[in-house]
């Protein structure tokens, strides 16, 4: 549809609804953080309420257009990119936090509420929203729901799914559903809420969510340990889990640390570089933390360590971990967001290291991850002189080996970033043909004309 035809259609059918066809808006809202696809949206809508979203979806069904829901666009799987003239629905105006219930400890949040806003709102009520990650200052709640986001505290608090008590959605056919409506216990048949959580916008557009909040946790301590080897990581994890009440157990490599130090101008937290590091957050218990450190030293797993002595120092130590993605973003990294059972992490990483040495001899690889829940982030950095398309193609060739190993370990090709366009060709490494067929059938039920995020996750 030509731009003038589209303008005429929208002025006739969606009079009064805010939209833009400005090149800057089309580029901004037509891509996410992957940068592997040229954005090619035809229009960006800025609806104000659920009725306007429903109007857009119904018009898309009548005209055969494809619609892409858009949040903070912080994803790494190209799940929110427009590559072929799609209509984009930005949920940025759905940014209200309302209906806080101190008895139920619940709150309603619009799709466009930023994660950090919800965290701050909870804190202002003396409560806690534990889902947290490096993009909390820009990611939207609906995007978190769409990918069932996890982050740095999954080890203790679980995933986004565990905090969604209710959802309001507009399906691909334009129906409005109010799912579970905040109930804690509800055994009245199928709970469609859980179909939409993690569905990456292929079934419906999330409008609002009712979120469960928690009591504030005890005071937390942060400890950064420098480890002797890859094998030492899980040994230290087992040791720490016995002695401490862990909220987080994050790891990163020496290459990751060097990138963060260079990007942010940080000093080395230790006197020298070490092969691997783990950052622990736990209920305040300095005596037990010292026991973990000393036992790790005696066992030959730990070279050095720091226990934060103030909130400022704890924040600084976290920056060495949370600054990694930002420090490598300009290299257009190819991200492998993978997971295996926690007990299998050492064996998996050992075999994966052999694959990386053989298949990526000329590329720099950056390791970090939420290793306490089996989630590893492997980032391949694009050489400055290599074409982006060629780089992506080479990484996808190596994926056959990486994902083949994941399949052997019964793991996941996507632990928390979703499938989108980038991981879609490799979905059979994690899902059986029967599962994929059923996923397609579910999409057909909620989006019979395939207007929502067509081509992402599974074929319509």
From TrEMBL:
Keyword Transmembrane set for record: no
Annotated InterPro entries: FAD-bd_oxidored_4_C, FAD-bd_PCMH, FAD-bd_PCMH-like_sf, FAD-bd_PCMH_sub1, FAD-bd_PCMH_sub2, FAD-linked_Oxase-like_C, FAD-oxidored/transferase_4, Oxid_FAD_bind_N
Domain FAD-binding PCMH-type: 36-216
Required co-factors: FAD
Domain of life: Bacteria
Keyword annotations from UniProtKB, A to Z: FAD, Flavoprotein, Oxidoreductase
PROSITE patterns membership: FAD_PCMH
Signal peptide: none
Family: Belongs to the FAD-binding oxidoreductase/transferase type 4 family.
PANTHER family: D-2-HYDROXYGLUTARATE DEHYDROGENASE, MITOCHONDRIAL
Name assigned to this protein: FAD-binding oxidoreductase
Originating species: Marinicella sediminis
Native organism taxonomy: Bacteria, Pseudomonadati, Pseudomonadota, Gammaproteobacteria, Lysobacterales
């Amino acid at each position: 549809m030509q731009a003038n035809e589209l303008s005429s259609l929208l002025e006739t059918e969606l009079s009064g609804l805010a939209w833009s066809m400005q090149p800057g808006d089309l580029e901004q809202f037509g891509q996410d953080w992957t940068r592997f696809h040229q954005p090619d949206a035809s229009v960006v809508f800025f609806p104000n309420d659920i009725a306007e979203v429903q109007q857009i979806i119904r018009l898309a069904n009548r005209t055969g257009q494809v619609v892409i829901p858009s949040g903070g666009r912080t994803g790494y799987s190209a799940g929110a990119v427009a590559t072929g003239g799609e209509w984009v629905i930005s949920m940025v105006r759905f940014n209200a936090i309302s209906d806080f219930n101190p008895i139920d400890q619940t709150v309603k949040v619009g799709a466009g509420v930023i994660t950090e806003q919800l965290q701050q709102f909870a804190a202002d009520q003396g409560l806690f929203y534990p889902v947290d990650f490096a993009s909390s200052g820009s990611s939207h709640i609906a995007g978190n729901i769409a990918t069932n986001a996890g982050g740095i505290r999954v080890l203790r608090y679980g995933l986004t799914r565990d905090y969604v008590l209710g959802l309001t959605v507009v399906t691909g056919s334009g129906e409005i559903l109010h799912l579970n409506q905040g109930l804690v216990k509800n055994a009245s048949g199928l709970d469609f809420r859980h179909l939409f959580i993690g569905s990456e916008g292929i079934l419906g557009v999330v409008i609002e969510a009712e979120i469960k909040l928690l009591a504030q946790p005890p005071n937390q301590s942060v400890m950064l340990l420098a480890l002797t080897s890859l094998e030492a990581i899980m040994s230290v994890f087992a040791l720490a889990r016995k002695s401490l009440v862990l909220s987080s157990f994050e790891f990163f490599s020496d290459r990751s640390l060097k990138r963060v130090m260079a990007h942010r101008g940080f000093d080395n937290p230790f006197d020298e570089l070490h092969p691997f590091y783990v950052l622990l957050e736990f209920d305040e218990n300095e005596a037990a933390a010292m026991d973990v450190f000393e036992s790790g030293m005696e066992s030959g797993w730990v070279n050095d360590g720091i226990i934060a002595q103030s909130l400022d120092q704890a924040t600084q130590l976290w920056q060495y971990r949370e600054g990694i993605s930002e420090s490598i973003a300009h290299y257009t990294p190819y991200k492998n967001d993978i997971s295996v059972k926690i007990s299998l992490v050492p064996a998996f990483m050992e075999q994966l290291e052999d694959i990386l040495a053989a298949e990526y001899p000329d590329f720099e690889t950056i390791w970090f991850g939420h290793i306490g829940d089996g989630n590893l982030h492997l980032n391949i950095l694009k050489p400055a002189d290599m074409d982006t398309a060629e780089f992506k193609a080479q990484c996808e060739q190596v994926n056959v080996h990486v994902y083949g190993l994941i399949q052997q370990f019964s793991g996941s090709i996507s632990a928390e970033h979703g499938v989108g366009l980038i991981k879609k060709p490799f979905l059979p490494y994690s899902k059986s043909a029967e599962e994929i067929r059923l996923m397609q059938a579910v999409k057909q039920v909620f989006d019979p004309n395939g207007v929502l995020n067509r081509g992402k996750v599974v074929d319509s």
